[in-house]
């Protein structure tokens, strides 16, 4: 599973709980995209970045 290179956000795990209170496993996947990012040394690199980091401006797209 992909993990954000900036904040480390990944998948979360828990339980689906039915109306009759039966539990089954559930996984919530974070919204992680593969994007080309400008680096501080002037180059570009492909990284996995979550959309909240992209929206907040923590990384600059190439």
UniProtKB/TrEMBL annotation:
Name the record gives this protein: Large ribosomal subunit protein bL28
GO MF assignments: structural constituent of ribosome
PANTHER family: 50S RIBOSOMAL PROTEIN L28 (PTHR39080), LARGE RIBOSOMAL SUBUNIT PROTEIN BL28A (PTHR39080:SF1)
Matches recorded under Gene3D superfamilies: Ribosomal protein L28/L24
Record Pfam families: Ribosomal_L28
Cellular component GO terms, alphabetical: ribonucleoprotein complex; ribosome
Keywords assigned by UniProt, alphabetized: Ribonucleoprotein, Ribosomal protein
Coiled coil: none
InterPro entries per UniProt: Bacterial_rp_bL28, Ribosomal_bL28, Ribosomal_bL28/bL31-like_sf, Ribosomal_bL28_bact-type, Ribosomal_bL28_sf
NCBIfam families xref list: L28
Gene coding for it: rpmB
Highest taxon of the lineage: Bacteria
GO BP terms in the entry: translation
Family: Belongs to the bacterial ribosomal protein bL28 family.
């Amino acid at each position: 599973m992909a993990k954000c290179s900036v904040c480390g956000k990944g998948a979360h795990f828990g339980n689906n709980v039915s109306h009759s209170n039966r539990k089954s496993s559930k996984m919530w996947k974070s919204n992680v995209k593969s994007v080309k990012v400008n680096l501080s040394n002037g180059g570009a690199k492909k990284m996995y970045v979550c959309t909240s980091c992209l929206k907040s401006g923590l990384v600059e797209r190439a």
